[in-house]
Amino acid sequence: MNALQQYIDLYDAYRDTVEKASPAVMNRARVEARRALSQMALPVKGSEDYEATDLNAIFATDYGVNLNQMRWQGELRFSCDVPNLSTNVYYVLNDTFVAGASAREQDGLTVETLAQAALRHPDVLERCYGVLSHADSPTTALNTLLAQNGILIYVEAGYNAERPIQIVNVLNADMPLLAVRRVLVVAEPGSSVKVLVCDHTQNSSRNYLSSEVVEIVAREGSTVDYYHMEESTPQTSRLSDLYVRQEAGSNVLVDGITLTNGTTRNNYYIDVAGEHAQTRLLGMAIAGGEQHVDSYTRINHRAPRCKSDEMFKYVLTDRATGAFAGKILVQPDCPRVEAYQGNKNICGSKEAKMHTKPQLEIYTDDVKCSHGATVGQLDEEALFYMQTRGVSHEQARRLLMQAFVSDVIAGVRLDVLRERLYHLVERRLDGNDAMCADCRINK
What we know:
With 443 residues, the protein is an alpha/beta fold.
């Protein structure tokens, strides 16, 4: 059975409810999304680029959908356990947006709902919403069909947003729930912004599915850092499609970190469309138990004299599974492109499994491109050496695993966040939950 059909039927039955509070640009995008979904099925385990994730099985679960956009009821209290990190905090509670007490209006920077943007920044929304995302992706098309609102982060030309934007995504409901989330980041020429997104699940007894589409438009000479940290539960599934378009001279860093989860599928589509653009795409996952982490990446170089650097690292223990499928494309007439792709993995148990599939497609000369993948275990000689120096076996394993993922953490361009991540990874490798102790949102 095609699990998509139940959501198509839901939309058809409640179309007026879905569309009544949404901006016109979102409703127009649903037309193509509905048409595309009617002609496709969700990939199942074993199909191309989805070797280890059965998306059809994930969507087959009977989730509730917040069609009436019911808002969180009760007092909102939150503190971020990242010492010395001062951020503008916003929340997405299931799938509704709330500004936190620390959120501040800034000249040159806007953070608002897409419904608000339709009134205050209609030109930005019309030019950028849905332009990058692909209707031929079933997860993106389904998100486009059902999303009723979302977040716009808009940085005006030349503005340097020194204080990071923090978005705290929270899942908490007393029934299985599908949360449909949408984010649009637009950095105008010469601007800069840092965005930190944290995923938390408050109720560990329920099944949740988070569907997220993120679009990042990096105009000429802009700088965008986008960090994502997932700290959820074994009952949580997360499906994320992130799209980036870079213009000339732009600099984009995307860093995705999975510390605790259930089933996670992250798709990254990066379009390098201007000369001298620089891209860094990093990913890291620590998974144990029955956890599953899957990443698909595509960096498309469509302009000469650009550089991309990509590295994903996994540490898998117990019966955890991981997957990585990455592709770098260099289009014709794009000389002097430098592109590197790496995927390195450690399986810390006999039952842990990793699937990896790196790819290069190059259609021009005078480029420097390479890719590679490794799957192995911890160095037994290094373990033995450390034990002879008085380090216990478990401590030696943890130290080697920490060293293994350190370069992904080192890529974080926020000093205080980088130091906090080292601590969280240490806790996670010690067998503890990596949840920030003070990151609590209570009703």
